[in-house]
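Lay summary. Proteins are chains of building blocks that fold into shapes, and those shapes determine what they do. In this project we predict the shape from the chain. Here is one chain we studied, written as its sequence of building blocks.
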Amino acid sequence: MYLLKKLKYIFNSKKQLLFYRDFQGFTGGHLKVWDYFNHTIKSKQYYPQIYFSPTTVWENNPWLNHAQINKTWQLDQADCLFLAGLDWNILTQIPDIPIINLIQHIRHSVPTDPRYIFLRNKAIRICVSEEVTEALRNSQQINGPIFTNPNGINIQTLPIVKHRYNLLIAGLKQPNLAINLQKRLNIENVKVLTSPLARKDFLNIINQAKVTVFLPSSYNEGFFLPALEGMVLNTIVICPDCVGNRSFCKHDINCLMPEYNITEISAMIKIALSMSESKRKIMLNNAKQTTKQYTLVQEQQNFLNILDNVTNIW
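And here is the predicted shape, written in a compact code that computers can read:
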């Protein structure tokens, strides 16, 4: 009872930042919104609440059983709104409160994308990479201030284990290419992932692979987090250029970056598997050093600097 009263006092002394999600399965985009939801808990001025669409799926939903879920859409109770992706569709009209808009993909700047029309709505936009920020600026459509807050990761270093797989092909976004790669290669102990699985299991499998090929969904990801996650672990990362990985993927330094076609990727796999142990250690060390620049702690601080000054910024 004391704890409930204390929480009520804390919340009553703060303003509400309202989130919205239509959760149809776990994705990297949902994971990042979950991170921002938790960042808000650390705010001096705001506390988070969230409302989910009626069709939301609760399996693998990180908000499951969370105390700060609204059963109804209560926009009138919010002091500030947090939207990402197609969340704008929940609004019947634009409210007269500050709106924070998380932009996780370059596609927002493409006129044929359904997210493009939302750029004209006034919002404080937070982009997950410099590449996304540049794309939005070049669109000349944005209404409101724009910030870059590079994605942070929070992975506890897993113990170094004996490699179970010579090669892992992470093809969740490109299943056909992943399967064709496997058929093309004459390599033993190859693991191919084409279906979603729990993030913990995904990371454990990466850690058991000597080499991991990450296949982005397209040539213009906003911030390709799996490649950065792979750098934390005991695997050599192979990842083609997808725009949103240019800030942290450095060819032949912390990873290998083939052209995005089956021939070049196959050739790079052979190079990775025949890499000397000394070069392998150097690349793995460089990769781990890179990840230290992308922490959730820094991401959180950057966000709170915006959130706790949102009235002035707005």
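What the prediction tells us: The chain has two domains: 10-151+296-313, 165-291.
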